[in-house]
Design goal:
Largest sheet: 2 strands, antiparallel
Distance between the termini: 21 Å
Number of strands: 2
Strand content: 35-45%
Oligomer: single chain
Order of helices and strands: EEH
Structural class: alpha+beta
Number of helices: 1
Strand order of the largest sheet: 1-2
């Protein structure tokens, strides 16, 4: 996925909630938005820039990141 150019990187999480009152029920979407104030690409502190920088540091050091082994 290529991010849109913006000064903010964000995503949304929606949880379905069933609201029951007597014989009436409603399925409601409860959405939360998470955002980070940063430009999405081509900047020194962008997430993908830091990802490649960290990966390059690991390759050059010859040491794997122990955290990677814990990912499902």
């Amino acid at each position: 996925m290529i991010p849109y150019y913006s000064s903010e990187v964000a995503f949304e999480v929606t949880n379905a909630v069933e609201n029951i009152v007597g014989c009436d029920f409603n399925m409601e979407g409860h959405t939360r938005r998470f955002a980070v104030r940063e430009y999405s690409h081509r900047t020194e502190n962008a997430q993908e820039t830091n990802m490649f920088r960290h990966f390059a540091e690991r390759v050059l050091s010859g040491e794997p990141d122990p955290y990677w082994a814990s990912w499902p």
